Amino acid sequence: MEEFVKYTASQLKKKIAQDNLAASDIASSVADRYDKVEDKVKGFAHFDKTLLSERAKELDKKGCAGNLSKIPVVIKDNICVKDELTTCSSKILAGFKPPYDATVVTKLKQAGALLLGKSNMDEFAFGSSCETSCYAPTNNPYDLEKIPGGSSGGSAALVAADETVLALGSDTGGSIRQPASLCGVVGIKPTYGRVSRYGLIAFGSSLDQIGPVAKDVTDCAGLLNIISGYDPMDSTSADMPVPDYTGSLIANIKGLRIGIPKEYNPGSITGPIIDEAAPVNETGIKIREAVDMLKDLGAQFVDISLPHTKYAVSVYYIVGCSEASSNLARFDGVEYGYRQKQPGSLLDMYKKTRGEGFGAEAKRRIILGTYTLSSGYYDAYYLKAQKVRNLIKQDFEDAFSRCDIILTPTSPETAWPKGLKTKDPLSMYLSDIFTIPANLAGIPALSLPCGYDSNGLPIGLQFMAKHFDEEALIRAAYTYEQNAGWQKVRPKL
Amino acid sequence: MSHYLTTIGLEIHLRLLTKTKAFCGCSNCFGGEPNTFVCPVCLGFPGSLPVLNSQYLRYAIKVALALSSNVSGMMKFDRKNYFYPDLPKNYQISQYDMPLSLGGYVDIISDNKPKRIAITRVHMEEDAGKLVHNKRALSSYVDFNRTGTPLLEIVSEPDISSPEEAYRYLIAIKSIIEYLDVSDCNMEEGSLRCDANISIRPKSQKELGVKVELKNMNSFKGVRDALIYEEKRQAKALSADEPIAQQTRLWNEEKQVSEPMRTKEEAHDYRYFPDPDLPTVSIDATLIEEISSELPEMPEQKKERFIRDCGLSKYDASVLVSDKVMACFFECCIKLYPKPKMIVNWLTGDILKYLNANNIEFNSVKTTPQRLISMFELMDNKTISGKMAKEVLHEMLATGDSADDIVKKKGLLQISDKSVIEKLADDIINENPKVADDYLSGKTNALGFLVGQLMKKSKGRADPQLANSAIKKGLGKKRP
After folding, report:
1. N or C terminus of chain A with fewer C-beta within 10 Å?
2. Under CATH, domain A4-248 is a member of which superfamily?
3. CB contact under 8 A, B81 and A326
4. Nearest to residue A437, comparing CAs of A217, A118, A173?
């Protein structure tokens, strides 16, 4: 059987038109691929072959002619799909099937997409390695002993492993971009407010955004077109017109001003990176090569400064955990999900349900957030963090007065061995050092492959742009991709 | 209470009658089959998000303006975090440090003197659900119909110095809100709830005493009773040199006592923080002006107008405006019958007396302005006398029938036929020769007795003036 899932969405669309393919043909190809590689990758949290074939048959019957007609899409397990398991890879949501579709899922269904199932993730998106899932950890398709990144590790791994064509992820502090980087695929965190959060099970409500994960920039732009736009059900979504992002797929960046933050040089912050004189690791070398190529393509590089960026990780963990502690309070065993049923008092039920239902990292963040919101600590933590968050936003505004795009590595390092950081939460938290600032500022950011290290593990390049300027991101990324050609590299499974 | 000063502050929760709930599209209905007016948003399902109901905002602004409270240009919503099964998200969307409005006041009469009670703030918040306990099965159920319905919290300053003032304050608030048509204000049905803070201190002491919070009162009277009880309990403790614990107490209506619920040490830390799902709301001056212009005439303004334009006394005007329906009844009457003083006398006299005696609210009064005026006209054209009118009115209030029908049914028509009355007068004079003689010999007060006898004989139906002249005429015939 031909492996249709190996195509990009734009290629598959042509193929479907040419060969008059049915959704059922594509579904069988998906199932086939699943049988071949899923044991190695373990990217799905929920996948049901029977359900998939039924859905495909229904699509064929309806004959949907939408923009994503018959294109396989995987949904991260924290995005609600009506009457289908949606568990945030957490025991506390065991068996939970939401009675409604997230707005993005409604849009995908309207576009005719073939929904495959739910992708594995760090429990409630708390993590950077996909190891905190209540299911088996997902493996990196480039090296099955390594982590795929997180929290949207399942989405990135499934795209990389050609188990799906497209995927949706969510990004609170890098959860789309970091796994995209570690799995050698493309991912976008849109501007806060660009994509409706209705139906996304909240982690940090002021930071969360849903975004596309795909094999190339073209597919990301196409998927972003579908999911973007104002939603009256989400008060934080932006009531602004959405441009056609595929219109930015132009391989030309002459005159584009690209800023590089001086703080990301070695010595100033933990980690690499961009030092003309002495590149410190392989990520740094590849980033420099990318910079050189972009220069050759006509971009102008400028030095910029993000003076408060060194506080970003601290601010993020205070704001994110504070919001999470409140957002996760609803998981109490009363209405849905897991409930410890031993007889006892109300308090017993709460304690046992939450004690057994949440994993260690979720508990850690709930406790952290409860602490930072407590009376007597609120001013010192939450309030102060909000003030610093404003300074970080201001940093970006100042920087974008001098440049159109900011370039950084996506992750300080390539995929690490499983288990390496699980005992040391702080080192795990620091792996999001380059991605967190964009969430705090609400600006859009994109990660795409810029090469491979000596072990064959992908390295990712991050672009950030000003609010609602996803077009600049897409144009810069597309130009680089067309010239560098890394999207053609696939893992050997 | 002579040795102590009492300080009371009230927190009123008002349920607003918007069409839909505060942050979702569910119907805002009272009661109904359990869990029928619910959706993912008010059930706090994961992934659902709140959206502010614009009618809720308008109603809230309306109330704030009517209480002369300053509506903020910017307000935000906060999360009040606590675990309870009737609260699906385990946090309540409320307002903490940037509420809807600040300041304001309500005027009441205390000890026959006007007094102004200051309002601290008015803020918006969603209501919780209801627990239903099955003691036999040792299980509890939750009804989420009320979850997410829109509330307003009106917090008073500790300006209230007696349980009676607290009662008056509640009546005044209710009367203002009723004019706005945004809430039922029915405490028995829970559309108005009231918690009270009370402390007492010796008259010589400057700083306030230890504050006790009272909850679970189910009527305005209950609030007053609970405060009277608590005032006495605290005074007794202070007199005996016993310390008063800072605590929350529940009013036990049945036993008429307050019972401790929790102490300060057990108080919640609600971990308020801005709700990231709801952006800050800016309320521009145009919206405030627009809503302000839609405000109906408030009781205080109406009272002034009644005094100015209808020549009513302050007292009559106050009584009329204390009930929106009665004031409206009055206004309908004066359009039909321009004798405001006469109307107000009947309204605040016989009609109110009847309603109070029978425990009827004015809004369920059985007669109409048109019918009352028809009765007046029967008096004017002498079909009935003033005395008969009282009887007719009583019947009108009891049955809802028109004065005409009652008069016909009861044969209450006034006798205005001169010849009939004169015949009656002659009979009376003949039956009482001694009295007639007394009159003729100069004892003029004998006339009254004879007229009285005539009225009695006619069962009160004779036109009193005609009766008077007929007796005089009959006696004149006897004059030698």
Report:
1. N
2. Amidase signature (AS) domain (3.90.1300.10)
3. yes
4. A173
